[in-house]
Amino acid sequence: MLSRLMHPNLEKSDKLVDTKKKKINKMIDKKASVKDLKQSEDNNMATKNRADDILDLINDFRHNKFKSSHEVAIKTEILMEKLISQGQWTTAQELMDLIRNRIRIFSNALPEETTPVNIMRHILKVIREEYLDFKSKVEEQQSLQYLVMANPEDHAGDYTKPQERLRSALLNNLTEYKTELETSVDNIASQALEHIHSNEIILTFGKSNTVEQFLKSAAKDRQFQVIVVEAAPNYKGHLMASNLAKCNIQTTIIPDSAVFAMMSRVNKVIIGTHAVMANGGLQAACGAHTIALAAKHYSVPVMVLVHLYKLSPLYLCSYEQNAFSVCQSPASVLPQRNGPIVSQVHVYNPVFDYVPPELVTIFVTHQGGNASSYIYRLLSELYHPDDQDL
Amino acid sequence: MFKGDSGGKEAIQAVIVGDHFGNEFRPVTDSLPFALLPLANIPLLEYTLEFLSLGGVDETYLICCNGGRIIEDYVERRVKNCAPWSRSMKVVIIMSETCRSFGDCLRDLDSRGLVRGNFILVEAGTIGSIDLKNYLQKHVNNCKNDKNAVATVLFENCGAGNPSALSKNEITLGASAKNRILFYQNKRSSKIEIPLDIISGNKTVDIFHNIKDVHVMICTSSVLPLFSDNFDFQTRDDFIRGLLMNEEIMGSTIYTEFIKNNEFGVGITDWRSYHATSIDVMHRWAYPMTPDAASAGLYRYIKNNIYRSQDVQIGKNVSLVEDVVIGPKSVVNSDTKITKSVIGPNVYIGKNVKIANSFIFNDVKIEDNVEITHSVIGRNSIVHSKSRITMGTILGIGVIIPTGTKLEDALVQSHDPLNKDPNAKIGPVAYKVRFDTDETAESGKESYSKATSRLHLHFPDEDESSEGDSTEQSEDLSYRNSPLPDDTNMFLTEVMDSLSRGYEDKLQCDNLILEINSSRYAYNVSLKEVNLNVVKAILELAFQNLPCKQSTGLQYWSTLQPLLKYFKPILNNYVRNRDAVEDALQAVEDVASSNSEIADCVVKVLEWFYDNDLMAEENILKWNSGLDKKGKLYKKVQPFISWLEEAEEDSDSDEED
To answer: What residues form the membrane-spanning segments (chain A) (predicted)?
Structure first.
């Protein structure tokens, strides 16, 4: 009886519990849906703010916050690291889209700055490799038959499979890459003794952090003389010369116009560059072409110190290319106080020169010296062919 | 008050007064706020915001008056589209639609109490590339050194005749060695009057004339209350002038800084400066604010400063000469020639059109065989074929010009101005209008100032303005050449009159002295000048008494000698002390340098003075040492001097004996 009596109660209570559970479930569902809403809002915010990091980078460029390309490289790498560790992505494909989007935004805003784009492009290749690496590991466990039967092209362009360990693997890879970036200057500088010999006269142009470190490192063991070309109208060579002179290097500063006259006495030209084009031509500070031509005339070797992140897979198509002809304000060439003539003349103050590859004798990267004809090989190591055109 | 010196931590604030408050840009600004007036196809406000952002400003207050809603919408849209300036700068919009002047805006801002520390004050239409942080620091230093400093005004040294500076106004500025502004004049005139106390009260005063106002003023927080206290301050010029005039009462000082050679700044105040700045922007002075850089790959920069949008259709045989911007989706048909002009987006230009020095805004249609020079075509306008629009014509918004119309120096709007002037109607949607601008009311007679106020910009051959200048200059010269009716000169002739009369009538010398003394007081001449002029008068009187005009030194001397003898009492009276002797010698020198006769017998004159004990030898020797060694006079005097020196030695040796 009791049991009987109990039973309906139990049933009742069960029912109650059920209804309660249902209610709670509903509640939870509601909460969940609220959460979802919030999440989707967050997602929306995320999509809105998605490219904020790159816009900040562009802003820093516009405000002239970077003193060297090295700083730019490190900053871009940190940006990428953050994107990979905190970004909203699940598959390699999504991550690559995020990065591609950033590349597009950046190269639209600052077409002449190639370093961040190069780094992002390189990271695209790293992602591809890591993904395929994982994939092949998974597929190894499957039967040999599957491997034989499977058409490799089916999966070549497919990066949509989510992989849990991809994130951590990428981050490990990036840390390695970061150390490579950080040590690049020192690595190049450590090769100085192979290139600079005693009592040589070396000509350099404007200000380059890498060249400065290179010369300083050589000066520890050898005596040599440096001629710095002042690089009008910014006169960055002045700073370079004073920095070198502080390290007890015998330094002479000359105006740009004296380059040809001095070249006959020079043993080597060592310059830095803003970027290296796909054919090995340089996008270097304005005035570099004159120096390279003078060096050619006197058969003086031209050495270009370059970090790998400066190698760009782009070609120079025409001198009117947006990415190439950046003309600054004429103010530093012909100041306003010159009166009415100022508005009647066209003053061009270009920032970059194109130096054709045949004028460059050797590129010194942190891996060693390479001829300009070898640049294409380095490029294929750095970037995936599918990422050249974005 | 001086929070700025705590370094970069303090947010740098800026204030933009977002309107122009004038009729200058009407009818184009009838429905388009001045701040959004496109310059090289980019709204003015965009340049100003970018300029402030790149200059290091963290927070900007934008005061909107006319068309405030449109400006607000624009700013919001730009922030949403991630405009470059929006990353590092916050823009706060203040609606003050009741404000009617620059001063009103600042008074309104003061009442809101938003700005606390130093701030940078600019106008919509201020364009530049200036490192504002640097000048803010200088301003803070000025404030430290001078507790009364309230503002630092930036100027650019731009050389004479720079077209950007050639607006209606020309600035003349006087500043002390420490860059304090002592004198400020902002008007075009051939004469500049600088108060004497500015020169006498300061050790050094630099007067600047070839300068351009960059329309940037760095202010302390006390500037806004100053505007509130003085409700007659309408413009920034009022403020500067008012503070300078009432310096003692208000106790506020203003400083000036000149921007560096590699920086650039300009403020747009009229069509003239609008035109000049457009050219400057195309010449990349405002870098990085250039059409190609500002619009992220929309424009391509080609040689001869041509900015071509990627999707422009250009027909056969079109020549883009130089300084041209062509906006996206525009069509230019064959045989058209465009130079020094800006073509807006979505503009259709027909065949064989000539456009020079003109500004075509967006969505305009120009038919075949039209000629447009020195003109502005407002948006949505249509110019039918074979029209000629020249000489500073400004078309408003949505105007339709009928076929074959010729327009010169006219303002045209699309709706009837309601004054029922039958001549005003050009077509069904085109009416001529007139706006009384402030300066025509002030100087209506000067057609010149009116002419330069519009778009007459003949840069290479400034025919109009140079003509005006030259006539002004020639007037000046004639004015300068006419002898000055100076008191001293009047006194000299008076003295000569009385002396010659006295000599002829044999009057008593004592009476003559009385006469000279009374005329001295009449003409308010100093004692020094009396001495000088009396001796001069006697020496020159001899010329009047010469028998013939062609005379030699001897003849002169023979006429002078009796005169000197006769006037000796007068000379004794005036040439009394050492200073007076110096004056007398100066007089001899003056007369001798202008007349060869006395130069021949100057030795005799001096000897006479010496013999009559009017001059001592040390006076003469001192005077001699001050003479021009290469001059004729010096050579003539030498025999006498050497004789004097010998005599001195003799007397010395005599004394020794």
So the answer is: none
Query: What is the rounded CA–CA span in Å between residue B593 and residue A121?
Result: 87
pLDDT band for position B343 (cuts 50, 70, 90): very high
3-state secondary structure B601-627: CHHHHHHHHHHCCCCCHHHHHHHHHCC
pLDDT at site A305: 94
State the CATH architecture for B3-271. Alpha-Beta Complex (3.90)
Determine the average pLDDT of the residues in B255-279: 85
Indicate whether A176 and A225 sit together in one domain: no
| B18-22, B258-262, B342-346, B539-543: least confidently modelled range | B539-543
- Rounded to the nearest angstrom, the minimum Cα separation between A128 and chain B is 30
Cβ within 8 Å of residue B74, ≥6 positions away: B36, B43, B45
Q: Which tokens hold the place of A119?
A: 């780094």
Q: Which two tokens stand for residue A357?
A: 């590859």
Q: What are the C-alpha distances in Å from B652 to residues A155, A257, B611, B656?
A: 123, 70, 19, 6
Question: What is each CA distance from B242 to B119, B131, B258, B261, B353, in whole angstroms?
Answer: 20, 29, 22, 30, 51
Cβ distance of B163 and A325 shorter than 8 Å: no
Q: In Å, how far is B303's CA from the nearest CA of chain A? A: 8
The better pLDDT of the pair B119, B612 is held by: B119
Q: What is the pLDDT of residues B218-255, one digit of tens each?
A: 998 888 888 888 888 888 888 888 888 877 777 788 89
Whether residue B438 has pLDDT greater than 80:
no
Beta carbons within 10 angstroms of residue B102's beta carbon: 24
Beta carbons of A335 and B261 less than 8 Å apart: yes
Compare CB distances from B284 to A330, A337, A338 and report the shortest one's residue.
A330
Whether residue B465 contacts residue B472, with contact meaning beta carbons closer than 8 Å, is answered with: no
Out of 1.25.40.180, 1.10.3720.10, 1.20.1250.20, 1.10.10.10, which CATH number does the structure's domain B487-656 have? Answer: 1.25.40.180
Segment-wise mean pLDDT, segments of 10 residues, chain A, 390 residues? 42 48 49 43 48 84 85 91 86 87 86 89 89 74 59 60 80 91 92 93 93 93 94 90 93 94 95 92 91 95 94 79 74 79 82 91 92 90 82
**Those residues with Cβ within 8 angstroms of residue B153's Cβ, 6 or more apart along the chain or in another chain:** B181, B213, B216, B217, B218, B240, B254, B255, B256, B257
Q: What is the pLDDT of residue A140?
A: 61
- ipTM for the predicted complex comes to 0.77
Chain A residue at shortest CA distance from B163? A340
Q: Does A346 touch chain B (CB under 8 A)?
A: yes
Domain that holds residue A133: 52-186
The chain A residue lying nearest B56, using CA atoms, is A63
Give chain A positions within 8 Å (CB) of B160: 339-340
- DSSP bridge partners of B388: B371, B406
Mean pLDDT of B6-23: 76
From the candidate CATH numbers 1.10.8.110, 2.102.10.10, 2.160.10.10, 1.10.10.10, the one assigned to the domain spanning B297-435: 2.160.10.10
The number of C-beta contacts closer than 8 angstroms across A and B is: 100
Same domain for A360 and A264: yes
- How many domains does chain A fold into? 2
